[in-house]
Specification:
By secondary structure, the chain is an all-alpha fold. It is 64% helix and 0% strand. The chain has 5 helices and no strands. The longest helix has 17 residues, at 58-74. 16% of the residues are buried.
Length: 107
């Protein structure tokens, strides 16, 4: 799978949302696109079309599916829940700011 850095960032955030929320919604996919740096149109239909085009991209689709399966095979349900709970609490920063470094998802 050949993804751009932006597509990978979107995909990784989508996978994060998949395990972090009870059900991934269009709003979660939209937040993943925004997180990845895509310009989100003000018009709902155009924003929805952007998300659909990302999720329909074969490379993105394959990457997301493979990452979800990878996490499912290596983590129990309780481990997945705890992992994503702790990841969601990470703070990004520098050593001077006592930030948290690294994560299971690298960009």
């Amino acid at each position: 799978m050949n993804l751009s850095e932006q597509e990978k960032k979107f995909s990784d955030r989508y996978v994060f949302n998949f395990f972090h929320t009870p059900a991934v919604t269009g709003a979660d996919a939209l937040s993943a696109a925004e997180y990845a740096g895509y310009e989100i149109p003000d018009d709902y239909n155009k924003a929805d079309a952007l998300v659909k085009s990302l999720l329909n991209n074969k490379n993105i689709q394959q990457y997301i599916d493979s990452e979800i399966e990878r996490f499912r095979t290596i983590l129990s349900g309780k481990q997945r829940k705890n992992l994503w709970k702790h990841i969601s609490e990470f703070k990004v920063g520098t050593p001077e700011l006592d930030g948290c470094y690294g994560s299971i998802i690298n960009h």
